[in-house]
Amino acid sequence: MYASRVNISVIGLGKLGLPLAALLAHSGNKVRAFDKNESLMHSLIEDRFFSTEPELMETLYSGKENLIFTNDIAECISSSRLICIIVPTPSKSNGEFSNEFLIEVVAEIGRVLQGTSHEVVVNIVSTVMPGSCDSEIRDLLEKHSGKSVGIGLGLCYNPEFIALGSVIHDMRFPDMHLIGQSEPWAGQVVSEALSSIVSRIVPISFMTLTEAELVKIAINNYVTMKISFANSLQHVSSAIGGLNIDVVTNAIGMDSRIGLKYLRAAAPFGGPCFPRDTRALSALFQKFDLPDLLPNATSQINQFHSSFIVQEIESRLKSPAKIGVVGISYKPGTNVTEESPAVNIMTLLLKKGYQVGFFDDEGAHAPNGEIWQQEFQSISALIEWAEFILITRNHRNDSAILDVVSESQKPFLDLWRSLLVS
């Protein structure tokens, strides 16, 4: 932990940016925060903001004396030594990340920095394609600031490895800090700020900007490959018959070269990070005319796994039976349904002619306003309606959920427990 604290700006107050700003302020740093979403800014400035993200509201409250929300991006930037940018980089149709919003912010930061003389570091936290920071972003920053990156102006790439529903915890207890740096002094500024928010000593990997960009998507791809590998073993175990997939994957994971994390047959992977990072790595290989065999196979197996689950249901109950789905957010602790495995499976079931209803303990609703599923307000109501229960993910009150489903004496498929069927 560092005793010194610095003036920091956080640009972009979404699901990652706001928790980072709150933690930095909670840790004693003087933080100014900006987002171009006027409605969000009004709610933050007027103290009307509310979030269900665990620990976020408490962290915001505890750090409020050090946290200023402002609608003026120039005010936010002008006196800061460290500027963290966390704006969306949505996926393009080819799988690459778009820097459209990032470019807009970097240009504005450059214009504000024209009139400053103090040392400042621009820290890109948004996920970008390898090669972005050391070319397009560096060039844009130098063009609009009139300064050269290196002397008095630093550029870093420092993506976070977090999951919705545990953002604050993941920031406080990371496995490592990944810092791509234009200069060692710039990386040190970022590392000191990050060290102020963690609750233990964290190893730091310093490297070039492009190396860090590759590491970010490579780590998530390695995780998704492990998930797809375990799920593919479930497919063959089912074909052989009589095998306990947990016994198989637990034994494999005991090998120290492999490990147990993420090596478990369950639902397909989903959410706002894993699928798009897998597609991005595939796009990166294609850009250089290299075979994208691994990320492509990972995505294909993940897509097939949803069909495999539907086939398992079909082998037990024919349409138009009523299927009750427990949990449609992509993971516990969040109501986000972006790339949710449950939603994909429900869509396939509906195409097969099944009736589909759901209950979500995180308050998730049918995405995009769609009403083709029946939404139930309690698990008991869902079970009373359904003929077959599908548990799509683990839950915060896992044992209670399973007890209720088991006591109903209705057939069920539990993806989190390796496709156990009553």
Physical arrangement of strands within the biggest beta sheet: 3-2-1-4-5-6-7-8
Order of helices and strands: EHEHHEHEHEHEHEHEHHHHEHEEHEHEE
Give the number of DSSP strands: 14
- Class by SSE composition: alpha/beta
Tally of structural domains:
2
Predict the CATH topology of the largest domain: Rossmann fold
Helix content: 40-55%
Radius of gyration: 23 Å
Structure annotation, total helices = 15
Characterize the biggest β-sheet.
8 strands, mixed
Q: How would you describe the shape?
A: globular
**Percent of residues in β-strands:** 5-15%
CATH architecture tag of the largest domain:
3-Layer(aba) Sandwich
CATH class category of the largest domain: Alpha Beta
Q: What is the element layout, followed by pairings?
A:
Layout: E1 7-11, H1 17-26, E2 30-34, H2 38-45, H3 56-62, E3 67-69, H4 73-78, E4 82-85, H5 100-113, E5 120-124, H6 133-145, E6 153-157, H7 167-172, E7 177-181, H8 184-195, E8 204-207, H9 209-240, H10 245-253, H11 274-287, H12 293-314, E9 322-326, H13 341-351, E10 355-359, E11 374-375, H14 379-385, E12 388-391, H15 398-407, E13 412-414, E14 420-421
Parallel strand pairs: 1-2, 1-4, 2-3, 4-5, 5-6, 7-8, 9-10, 9-12, 10-11, 12-13
Antiparallel strand pairs: 6-7, 13-14
Helix pairs in contact: 1-3, 5-6, 9-11, 9-12, 11-12, 12-13
